[in-house]
């Protein structure tokens, strides 16, 4: 009897683990494009989509002010989902506008550009470079379908190792298990995520259809630039000021190059 109970518990644990990892690491299905006859508005229009990096410190307002200070008027539409990985950010593009964290309005507005600020949660939760790159490509293709120029901010420098040290036992075991299966027990580095995305962009020809911005121009090393961070995962106000300045200069350069 005890043996049967033990076997039953083991089977339940196996099923639980399978469902947990399947739910966590399964890729998004291809969403169906919706028709849109919206005509883009006149003037510079910029969208921003992503995770908490979009909504913390109101990145849209900071960028709009930076551009205004430089004599450039822009309408900015933003949508950020705190804690979202790239899969969720992709799915949010197709959510009904009445739903929380929907970013469908940005596709409907058809801005000239859309800044993609994503990937921190993918790396922090050890989703793996392929998972990150796959969903970034899905986001990019969606924007291009609606004639919106994607602007990709490279996966930002942040305190990846410090974040792992702060995880609970379950999360730590989950991350170690992922690295064991996907990376031969070697730790994923931020550069692995960046390199995989660049490789996928080149192999699909998307590298010629997007604009790449290097976050290293804001912060190249977390340990040496902790004065820019509120915690291992997020910038503070000083960091956002520098980041918004970087974005505004990049946008102006793009407009001047037209």
How would you explain this protein's 3D organization?
The chain has 258 residues and is of the alpha/beta class. The protein has one domain (43-252): Rossmann fold. 50% of the residues lie in helices and 12% in strands. The strands form 2 sheets. Strands 2-1-3-4-5 form a 5-stranded parallel β-sheet. α3 packs across α11 (237-256), α4 (86-92) runs parallel beside α7 and α7 packs across α10. The protein is globular, with a radius of gyration of 20 Å. The model has no long low-confidence stretch (mean pLDDT 89).
Share of residues in strands:
5-15%
> Class by helix and strand content?
alpha/beta
CATH H-tier superfamily: SGNH hydrolase
**Rg calc:** 20 Å
Which stretches are low in confidence, meaning pLDDT under 50 for 5 or more residues running?
none
Instruction: Label the overall shape.
Output: globular
Question: What integer is the average pLDDT?
Answer: 89
- What is the terminal separation in angstroms? 76 Å
Give me the side-by-side strand order of the main sheet: 2-1-3-4-5
Order of SSEs: HEHHEHHEHHEHHHEEEH
Q: Report the CATH C-level class.
A: Alpha Beta
Total beta strand runs: 7
Let me know the largest β-sheet.
5 strands, parallel
Domain module count: 1
Q: In the CATH hierarchy, what is the architecture at level 2?
A: 3-Layer(aba) Sandwich
Q: CATH topology, what is it called?
A: Rossmann fold
Number of helices: 11
